[in-house]
Design goal:
Oligomer: single chain
Radius of gyration: 25 Å
Number of strands: 35
Shape: globular
Largest sheet: 22 strands, antiparallel, barrel
Number of helices: 4
Distance between the termini: 34 Å
Length: about 625
């Protein structure tokens, strides 16, 4: 446990010394035409969260940040506990998670735990809704979330130290050291988090609703990320990233149970090497990665102890180019070889996936822009899948920054190893999940009186998922993976931002509203009561809003999060009621030449709302967080 942290601190010292070495930082560069094939700036199908949004004092991991800032639903078992994501009514395994293009979804379970990704390690995050996820891989029937680490070749040296103190013995520490010039860049990041989470709650499962304290909820997490980038030539550079993370979580019992020891330990090592080369009108990126994840689980009551280790070898070749001055071409090759060691009686110990992507898009011609894409997924020895998609974008002439977009196509997800081979319950005869999708969206950007900026986007989507994989109870006392005939998802996503700057006062109001209908459309058996019912733990209504007001060196931020009712049974006979949470943060900055000191105080769940995100799992009431942040250097 201590060795990785000792190594991390030693590396920090080394790189601080390296930062003091005088290296020539003036390089004459000839002009190179850089070609980046990013979606239209007016796209409402891709949402970007920058480091300021990700690293708010009230967020510690990616799940907490996305829940407040995007049109997604995060199914969380509590702060620091397991958190999985749902996009457009799809389940966690139907939402892909990437880090610099590398897939982080578990080959064993198919999903990713967002509580293991601290926002302090991330520069940007993108949410690709629906078919936009196809560029990076298959399986994202609802969409994908991409985490990025950006590189800037410029002379700088900066140290950022953050220390948090919160209720329930929360302690969070983070250190970032950035240094380099126009030739090389280095970033070192350290993170530590601990909490007891022994908050009080009303036990609704007992007569009289007695007040009790959560037991066995201690959390201990630490991590280290190292990034080094070097410019070989004017238009060529390489980078290396290493990410270590350790998490030890005690899992508290349900309200309906008694206290016992249940623990989950996660150890993850991620290594990534990338090569980037810019031609005059094209770009080549080659990446290779090794991801090693270990999971140790113990349950005192059931006398269960399991150990799983997954090692994934991934590679990416991405080529982007301009053709005939009006066409853009993008080809991408992904390979993923996974090796699994487990005690869960899984028969197939490895899997190979090869996937290609090709897209041709036009530049804007008479207000129109179009794209055609094809992705092929191959499982050697198994099956091959083709998934086409088409997009059309119209820029409205009468409005300065407005567009209407249409996307339609298909996506496919192959069953996870757990779905196929878990014993008992796995089903080797499962079909892949197939989805036909269509979405229509519009974006409007408007400026009023040179002081007020407004951005509004509205998206409507529809998808049908055939052979949806669902684990269901059997007459033999265990659960089994089965294909249910069809699930239909549809809904509306609305995002609005309004900003105003006037002399010393700046304010910003953001809101994200989501309506999601996710219904089972065909019977699995004669008296199936789940027909035309909402899938469990998919809220129909969600709304998150934030108001930020800045005056000189003072900032006030209010964040509101509303989650509608969630059904807990497939026939919709039982549900968890809606809840509304309000967080308030006040902060002050002091500047001393090139140093910045910031002090902030946050009150979370201001109105002390009693609620459950997961049935019979209590969540914390009103609690507090104090943050001290110090930034040194240029």
């Amino acid at each position: 446990m201590k060795r990785p942290l000792i190594l991390a601190f030693c590396l920090c010292k080394i790189f601080v010394l390296l930062g003091q070495i005088q290296i020539g930082d003036t390089i004459k560069l000839r002009e190179v035409k850089v070609v980046e094939f990013q979606p239209s700036k007016n796209s409402s199908q891709i949402q970007t969260l920058d480091s300021l949004q990700l690293q708010s004092p009230t967020y510690k991991d990616l799940g907490e940040s996305l829940q407040q800032n995007a049109n997604v639903f995060v199914k969380s078992y509590g702060s620091g506990s397991t958190a999985t994501i749902s996009l457009r009514g799809a389940n966690a395994s139907q939402t892909q998670v990437y880090w610099n293009g590398i897939s982080l979804n578990s080959s064993l379970y198919g999903s990713a735990d967002l509580a293991l990704f601290p926002t302090f390690f991330i520069d940007n995050a993108h949410v690709d809704y629906g078919l936009n996820s196809l560029k990076y891989g298959s399986g994202g029937l609802g969409g994908a979330v991409r985490m990025e680490n950006k590189v800037q070749f410029k002379k700088r040296f900066r140290v950022n130290l953050i220390q948090d103190f919160g209720s329930f013995n929360q302690r969070n520490s983070a250190l970032k050291i950035i240094g380099g010039n126009t030739k090389w860049q280095n970033e070192t990041k350290l993170f530590y988090r601990t909490a007891k989470h022994n908050y009080s709650y009303k036990n609704l499962a007992k007569e009289g609703f007695p007040k009790e304290n959560v037991e066995n909820a201690h959390l201990d997490q630490n991590g280290f990320m190292q990034s080094i980038s070097y410019r070989l030539k004017e238009q060529t550079w390489i980078s290396g990233n290493y990410w270590y993370y350790y998490s030890n979580r005690n899992l508290p019992p349900l309200m309906t149970g008694t206290a016992f020891t249940e623990q989950q330990e996660d150890i993850s090592h991620k290594g990534l090497l990338s090569f980037h080369h810019y031609f005059n009108e094209s770009k080549l990126t080659v990446s290779a990665a090794i991801i090693n994840d270990e999971l140790h689980y113990t349950n005192e009551r059931s006398r269960t102890e399991s150990d799983n280790m997954t090692t994934s070898y991934q590679s990416i070749i991405d080529y982007q180019s301009t053709l005939l001055k009006i066409l853009k071409w993008n080809s991408r090759l992904n390979t993923n070889h996974t090796h699994l060691k487990t005690q869960n009686s899984i028969e197939d110990k490895q899997r190979e996936e090869i996937s290609t992507f090709h897209q041709v898009s036009t530049k804007t011609i008479n207000h129109w822009q179009a794209k055609v894409s094809f992705r092929q997924l191959s499982i050697p020895g198994k099956q091959h899948f083709w998934t086409p998609s088409f997009g059309l974008n119209y820029f409205i002439d009468s409005l300065e920054n407005a567009s209407v977009q249409l996307n339609l196509g298909q996506n496919v997800k192959y069953p996870s190893l757990n779905d196929l081979y878990q014993s008992p319950g796995g089903n080797a005869f499962l079909n892949e999940e197939k989805s036909n999708q269509i979405s229509l969206s519009t974006v409007v950007k408007k400026k009023f009186k040179e002081e007020i900026d407004l951005q509004l986007s509205v998206s409507a989507f529809y998808a049908d998922i055939e052979d949806y994989i669902l684990w269901q109870p059997t007459a033999f006392g265990y659960w089994e993976a089965r294909n249910i005939k069809a699930v239909e998802t549809k809904g509306v996503e609305v995002r609005a931002t309004i900003e105003r700057a006037y002399e010393h006062i700046k304010w910003q109001l953001k809101s994200n509203y989501t309506y999601t209908s996710s219904l089972k459309k065909e019977k699995s058996f004669v008296n199936d009561q789940s027909l035309n019912k909402q899938l469990i733990y998919v809220p129909e209504h969600q709304l998150n809003s934030s108001l930020v007001i800045k005056w000189k060196t003072y900032t006030m931020q209010a964040q509101n999060h509303f989650v509608g009712a969630r059904y807990t049974t497939t026939d919709n006979s039982s549900f968890l009621p809606h809840y509304n949470l309000l967080d308030l943060t006040l902060s002050k900055e002091w500047m001393f030449k090139k140093q910045i000191l910031q002090l902030s105080f946050s009150t979370l769940n201001l109105f002390n709302t009693s609620y459950q995100a997961i049935q019979w799992r209590p969540m914390p009431g009103r609690n507090y967080l104090l943050r001290l942040s110090l930034m040194l250097g240029s």
